[in-house]
Amino acid sequence: MPARYEEIANDLQRQIEEGLLLPGQQIKTEKALMEEYDAARNTVREAISRLRVLRLLESRQGRGNFVVKPPEKFRITLTPEEDTGFSGGEGQAWVAEADKQHRRASTSTPDVLVKPADALMSKALDVPEGEQLIGRHQRRYITNEAGNPVPWSMQTSYYPFSFVQRGAVELMNAVDIEKGTMAYLKEALGIQQARYKDFLSVRPPEDEERSFFDLPAEGSVWIFVHRRTAYDTTDRPCRYTLTVYPTDRNEFIIEARLPIDDSQ
């Protein structure tokens, strides 16, 4: 059986989700809630604390507790577009996807780093562990309904350092590659993305993520981790991309076209 404070928190959460309590509306005082639920003050306070952790309520100094408007969700299509081969999480496809949802997308200037491959990178790119990789890291934003940029994701793409040695020197420049990195690699080295493999997981946020996404210190909002390995036309891995998204403002869409049996 749930604890008494959980029952109260669940009931208040239901009222918020059903629109009986609206964003910006003040909930009843602790005393009124104690009387309504026949509960002790500490029990009511624990219930309110739980809803604050879930980002459903906020306390305002000297005024009480108010319902918070939940973050706006952004839908990301992980399956590739037929025209570009890219999904909503990468390349210009995510900018187009933002446009379709009447949002504007923007990115920070890329930070370029050289780092040794860890175990995951080594396996993904089929290089020895410790081999140098080129990383291009960007913070990405999407506007909300009010037109204000909201931190949406952080993405780092890693490439074998041999690409630079073979002539793809623009990978080292801390500027956007306007045509797209994979389009540049096709032009510079003849490397064309043919397929990719995805891995999705969820974990608590790290300090940098908590700060950038403005997540609650209690750890109530976790992080989607999207790892993608891209392969070229010879089936060699050519790119390893790590993207992190806060779970409170993102949804993933995966579409599939099934084979049709025409024999009947």
Describe this structure in words.
The model has no long low-confidence stretch (mean pLDDT 91). The chain has 8 helices and 11 strands. The strands form 3 sheets. Strands 4, 5, 6, 7, 8, 9 and 10 form a 7-stranded antiparallel β-sheet that branches. Strands 1-2 form a two-stranded antiparallel ribbon. Helices cover 26% and strands 30% of the residues. With 264 residues, the protein is of the alpha+beta class. The protein is elongated, with a radius of gyration of 23 Å. It has helices at residues 4-17, 30-37, 41-53, 93-100, 119-125, 162-165, 181-189, 207-212, and strands at 57-60, 64-67, 74-77, 105-107, 111-116, 132-143, 149-160, 193-203, 223-232, 237-246, 250-253. Strand 1 (57-60) and strand 2 form a beta hairpin.
Layout: helices, strands, pairs:
Layout (H helix, E strand, L loop, with lengths): L3 H14 L12 H8 L3 H13 L3 E4 L3 E4 L6 E4 L15 H8 L4 E3 L3 E6 L2 H7 L6 E12 L5 E12 L1 H4 L15 H9 L3 E11 L3 H6 L10 E10 L4 E10 L3 E4 L11
Parallel strand pairs: 3-11
Antiparallel strand pairs: 1-2, 4-6, 5-6, 6-7, 7-10, 8-9, 9-10
Instruction: Bin the helical content.
Output: 25-40%
Gap between N and C termini:
53 Å
The structural class is: alpha+beta
Q: Total strand count, please?
A: 11
Poorly predicted runs: none
Mean pLDDT: 91
Largest sheet: 7 strands, antiparallel
The proportion of residues in beta strands is 25-35%
Q: Tell me the Rg in angstroms.
A: 23 Å
What is the H/E string? HHHEEEHEEHEEHHEHEEE
Overall outline: elongated
Tell me the number of helical segments per DSSP (H or I, 4 or more residues long).
8
